[in-house]
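Practice problem 4.
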C-alpha cells in the first residue's frame, strides 16, 4: 500500500514537473533567450 502510494505520488509529481517545464520552455522559447534558457535549464534540471 505505502509503496503504491509513493509510486503514484512520484508519477504525479513527475508529470506536474514535466508540464511546468514544458509551459516555461514554450513561454521562454525566443531567439534571444534560447542560450540563456538552455543555461538555466541545464543548471536547474541537471
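Answer key:
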Amino acid at each position: 500500500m505505502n509503496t503504491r502510494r509513493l509510486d503514484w505520488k512520484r508519477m504525479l509529481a513527475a508529470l506536474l514537473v514535466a508540464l511546468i517545464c514544458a509551459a516555461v520552455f514554450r513561454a521562454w522559447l525566443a531567439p534571444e533567450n534560447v542560450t540563456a534558457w538552455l543555461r538555466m535549464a541545464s543548471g536547474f534540471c541537471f
